[in-house]
Amino acid sequence: MSRRWVVATLLWPLLLAPAAAAEPPAVGPPDAIGAAAQGCLQGAAALPPNGPFWQVLRPGHNRYWGHPALVAFIEEMAERERLRGSLLVGDMSLPRGGRMPSGHASHQTGLDADILFRRTDRPLTEAERDDPDFAAVIEGGRILPERFGEAQFQLLRAMASDPRVERIFVNPVIKRHLCQSSNGDRRWLQRIRPWWGHQAHFHVRLACPAGDAACDPGPAIAAGDGCGTELDWWFTADAALPAVKPAPPPARYQPAMPSACKAILAGY
What we know:
Layout: H1 3-22, E1 31-35, E2 38-42, E3 45-46, E4 54-56, E5 65-66, H2 68-80, E6 87-89, E7 112-116, H3 126-130, E8 138-139, E9 142-143, H4 150-161, E10 165-170, H5 172-181, E11 192-194, E12 201-206, H6 229-232, H7 259-265
Parallel strand pairs: 4-6, 10-11
Antiparallel strand pairs: 1-2, 3-5, 7-12, 8-9, 10-12
């Protein structure tokens, strides 16, 4: 580990302290409240912006907070996969969860995190952190092997195989590639869900932690590996270019904000 890396690890929390202090987490035991797209977070923990095996992108956005279960998950996975390069972690949640000013409908309960497919073996510069390279790993409906290889495949399989994970969103082209490339035990593929966008990163969501009674889990995932007709739809005209089309506003009923979130998000 380089001296530069050690110094950066020690200094980053100090440099970011004012931003974090401006929006402190809600005091109390950790609790993911409500649903991913309609909820809040109590007792959040911050992922250290510069860990030994991960780096947080755009730390000035103050979105490196999460349920302690999510922080522990990222740290453990980063250490487990360290030989393939440092994880580049994008948006998690705000200190109290809730809706972000822009960019996400979900990420509201501290159980979601965006992680780039790109890995690195060196500390990023400040400019690289603040304006990351979101290089797509697909082009023209196909995987770019120089950007999506064994390291990315194994990371997705490791995370999707972890019982703490509820689902992982990837571009449909990537889901199809995983279906075609996987041998042996394919149960983990069930948690890999196709969704619009996600050309440069994947979105991992943890299941509701044990004891978080107010946490609303996502809809149940259909049985099977999701590699059949369900996946085929994404490559029809109805899906309208899934590699580039933004996610449409959900048509389903949006529940009211949980009453516990009103106090947590008041003045936030």
